[in-house]
Write a structure and sequence with these properties.
Radius of gyration: 23 Å
Largest sheet: 7 strands, mixed
Helix content: 25-40%
CATH superfamily of the largest domain: Nonribosomal peptide synthetase, condensation domain
Number of domains: 2
CATH class of the largest domain: Alpha Beta
Number of helices: 14
Strand content: 15-25%
Strand order of the largest sheet: 5-6-7-2-15-14-8
Structural class: alpha+beta
Length: 483
Amino acid sequence: MPALRKRRVGPVDTMWLNMDRPNNLMVIEALILLDGVPDWDEVIELFRHQVLEQFPVFRQRPEQHPPIGQPWWVEDEDFSLDRHIIRVELPEPGDDATLQAHMEQELDIPLDRDHPLWRVHLIGGYGSGSVIFLRIHHSLGDGIALTRVLLSLTKGDADGTAQLAVTTAVEPGESLTEPVSDGQGTGLVADVTGLVGSGLRLARDGVGQLLRLATPDGAMAATREVGRTTRVLGDLLFSHSPESPLSGEPGGTKRVRWSGPLPLADAKQLGRLAGATLNDVLMSAVAAALHRYQLDNGQEPVDLITMVPVNIRPLDEPLPPELGNEFALVLFRFPSGLSAPLDRLAETKRRMDRIKGSPEAVITFAIINAIGHLSASVARIFVDFFANKTIGVTTNVAGPRSSRTLAGVPVSGILGWVPGSGRQTLGVCIFTYAGTVRVGFISDAAVIPDPERLLEAFEDEVERIIHMGRPLPRRGRKRHGDR
């Protein structure tokens, strides 16, 4: 285990550590669904070797000393793996509803700050399979980093190792601006990640920028960039989600629902036909669910805004032992006011393309880091200001393309939700895995007591997309005498 017994909590991690509220905890919730029941002792050993020994923060607790300023991560001298990993057996009938009820009993319980901020349930009795349910505080790391940690517990037939980098970018050699290919690149993550990297490199290259500004072309490019940056700042400062059935003060009790595995092939086909990415297709399906939910609640549907986290950590490099948060955020306005599926898809693509060519992620990355240096009370004001512009957070992760196993048992699906803050009421998780996609909704029960209606609407839209994406059967040539 790396010798890292005490260290300062980074500014951004401190911000998330201080952002817990009774009605919105800063806890990432994740599920690994298994097709069988593994040897739980083997699973515990995997956690010991792949998680605890590689990432010391999983053995450390936060300590606020002195009373003001950044806290420390310190070694938990009373650390016990049994405190963090518990075994659970679901009651009959052991279906999705039973598992969801078990999760909902845990979702509003804060993690114990006297010990490391994570907890795992090893759950049996889930039909003929089992589940690993994880709760990890956001201050330990961002969603993509923690997904990579969890997937390091798995193995794949192709490589035979337990290591895996989450596929959130298109394959090498594949254009970032092309529509859906055989890969599962989300497009948004790939393009915006590249944009953030370019922005950071440009920021460091100050002399070079001054020389380029001295040329006519450089001056024109700078003028255009100032214009784009001004527009983005205007959107960040003045945009807001209108009042809707998804608006209200969170009460703290959460509800969770998710889909079964849905095939990706026909959704990709529709994307090709429409010149869109898979990410565009799936986000337009979420927009359809939001459209119908508003309509069913007696309101004329309007466009609603969500936050989309964007990973900026290189996926081809090992995770640092301290993990931490390295991500940006972009605001995406769902075209949930539109009723026609192809119109929604076209508008989703247009808005996504605008984000990919925008400096928004660079700007929000800088804002997040600046907020991280503020006091907890001031940081909370700024976080609320931006969070309250949106209904919640939507994540879209392209996971492994081929099936994985954990302790010898096939993984059938993966889901994970990052927490909301302020008055946010809805989290959406889209996770593609082994040629399928699952979507999950986590909602505040005081405002959205029936996330199953959102799920049903999403599944209906995916079914419609699959139908539209299938090629029409070829008609045989009419023979002489046929009518």
